[in-house]
Amino acid sequence: MFGRGFKLSLGIFFTLFILFLYGPTLSILVLSFQGPNGGLTFPMRGFSTFWFESLFDGVGVIDIWGAFGRSIRLGLVVMVLTVVLSLMAGMAFRKRFPLSSFLFYATISSLIVPSIVISLGVALEFRIIDDAVKAIGGDMNIQWVIDDFRTTMGLFSSGLGAQLTWTLPFGLLIMFAFSTGLTRLMKKRRAILALGHGKLSVRLCCRSLRHL
């Protein structure tokens, strides 16, 4: 059906896309085998397991259970926000509204951009916010900002935002598929039950979510 040249070009495009998607992660994996004088940049300065040995020798204190507890708390908050926001977005996108296409593609784009790029972007954004807070605090002579402020980055600020860039697009896509069938079902049952739109939406959503 398709010529050999088309299949070849499609294969090259797919290969380049996979490299763009997973290349940064593979780069970090390769750079972790740097020598003692190496860092997170190319070219490689030797090849060794020095950094892995340092990690398992106990250089630095690794609080596994503390990290596990923070992950659980963050995961619960992300789960609740993803369900609520995805449900609201799925219902909203049943009809077109201004900038709906832009909002959709902006949300889905985080699935295409490599995660390390998103992480660096989040870190840069909060660094800019930190600089702005320090500048405002210095100009307005706000003492607690001058003495105690360190950063706005944290588990439920930058960490929460980074997690939502992954979960919200998936939740939105699932709700698109769900709300398409829900809209047809609402039109049929609304005529039968003669219920208000809001009351029927809540009842059908709750009933349908039990079967997901």
What is shown here, in short?
By secondary structure, the chain is an all-alpha fold. The protein is built from 8 helices and no strands.
The biggest sheet, with number of strands, parallel, antiparallel or mixed sense and barrel status, is: none
- Class from helix and strand fractions: mainly alpha
Overall pLDDT level: 78
How large is the share of residues in beta strands?
A: under 5%
Please compute the radius of gyration using only Cα atoms: 24 Å
Helix count, per DSSP? 8
Helix share bin: over 70%
Backbone shape: extended
Total DSSP E strands:
0
Terminal Cα span: 38 Å
Poorly predicted parts: none
Helix-strand sequence: HHHHHHHH
Helix-strand blueprint:
Layout: H1 4-31, H2 50-56, H3 64-92, H4 100-112, H5 115-139, H6 143-148, H7 158-193, H8 197-209
Helix pairs in contact: 3-7, 4-7, 5-7, 7-8
Structure description:
By secondary structure, the chain is mostly helical. It has a domain at 63-209. The protein has eight helices and no strands. It has helices spanning 4-31, 50-56, 64-92, 100-112, 115-139, 143-148, 158-193, 197-209. Helix 3 packs parallel to helix 7 and helix 4 crosses helix 7 (158-193). The longest helix has 36 residues, at 158-193. It starts with a helix and ends with a helix. The relative contact order is 0.09. The mean pLDDT is 78.
